[in-house]
């Protein structure tokens, strides 16, 4: 029996956060195309300051439409306890909270040091659990910071230990600026395992420097079975210089299925969704399969 890898589609949040705001109708068209791929998890939006991330200003309006897509577990990113309260009020029951491993990026991203952000995990967990919701902590800049250079693994391990002690439900590591390489990915995962115990571990990789898919594959070989991806390779981080290029969902599906892994996402439907995303943002996207198509022609 082949190993199953869960793919969370992040185009609607991570994918659109650096774009000129896309109308709600276009987002819903993207969501319809994404839902048609068979994906079971979708990062729908972010409850953050509209002044910092204008493309997420319609978070509550988008959340109000999610009931039209049954069978998908929707999550939303938050940057504070107040954001968690807003997400819960909008009906989300899966929350992602990002903690940067370096202080400079953390201050630019959320206005707090890494330690201050870590210390808020417990409050966010309490808000979520009091409302039958779950919390995933995602460590940004897990391998490198655009401002401070290589991230000492001890910083990630410390955040992981604190997250586990404060009762989070899932944990993930993110290559925010797309600088990780397979060996460093495998090494960090091996160090994390004894720290997080039985917490589900996910990975979020960017293809900025061409190594994102290789890192995702290394993560799967190291036992990670939850990966984020974005149709078309849409996305990047507005607070990290040059941080563009999520791994494309269709490229990841091609790699995994052709390597014998099982996924829920249908490849032709993912390519079609990437085309919808391209039309929504009005420019070319970095996806390889969007340009070349599958190697198997029907």
UniProtKB/TrEMBL annotation:
Single Gene Ontology BP annotation: ketone body biosynthetic process
Keyword RNA-binding assigned: no
Keyword Transport listed: no
Pfam family, one: HMGL-like
Molecular function per GO: hydroxymethylglutaryl-CoA lyase activity; metal ion binding
Domain Pyruvate carboxyltransferase per the UniProt entry, residue ranges: 5-271
Record keywords: Lyase, Metal-binding
Family of the protein in this entry: Belongs to the HMG-CoA lyase family.
Name of this protein: Hydroxymethylglutaryl-CoA lyase
Organism: Mycobacterium asiaticum
């Amino acid at each position: 029996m082949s190993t199953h890898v869960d793919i969370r589609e992040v185009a609607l949040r991570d994918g659109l956060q650096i774009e000129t705001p896309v109308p709600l109708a276009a987002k819903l068209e993207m969501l319809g195309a994404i839902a048609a791929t068979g994906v079971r998890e979708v990062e729908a939006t972010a409850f953050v300051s509209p002044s910092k991330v204008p493309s997420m200003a319609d978070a509550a309006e988008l959340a109000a439409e999610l009931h039209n897509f049954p069978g998908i577990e929707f999550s939303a990113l938050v940057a504070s306890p107040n954001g968690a309260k807003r997400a819960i009020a909008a009906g989300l029951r899966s929350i992602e909270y990002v903690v940067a491993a370096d202080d400079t990026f953390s201050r630019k991203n959320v206005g707090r040091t890494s330690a201050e952000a870590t210390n808020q995990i417990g409050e966010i967990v309490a808000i979520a659990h009091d409302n039958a919701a779950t919390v995933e902590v995602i460590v940004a800049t897990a391998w490198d910071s655009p401002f401070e250079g290589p991230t000492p693994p001890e910083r990630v391990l410390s955040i992981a230990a604190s997250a586990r002690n404060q009762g989070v439900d899932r944990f993930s590591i993110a290559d925010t600026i797309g600088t990780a390489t397979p060996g460093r990915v495998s090494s960090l995962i091996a160090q994390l395992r004894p720290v997080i115990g039985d917490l589900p571990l996910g990975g979020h990789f960017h293809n900025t420097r061409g190594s994102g898919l290789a890192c995702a594959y290394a993560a799967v070989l190291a036992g990670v079975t939850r990966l984020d991806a974005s149709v078309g390779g849409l996305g990047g981080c507005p607070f990290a210089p040059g941080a563009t290029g999520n791994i494309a969902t269709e490229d990841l599906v091609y790699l995994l299925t052709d390597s014998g892994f099982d996924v829920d996402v249908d490849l032709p439907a993912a390519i079609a969704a990437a085309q919808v995303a391209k039309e929504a943002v009005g420019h070319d996207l970095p996806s390889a399969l969007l340009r070349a198509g599958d190697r198997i022609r029907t």
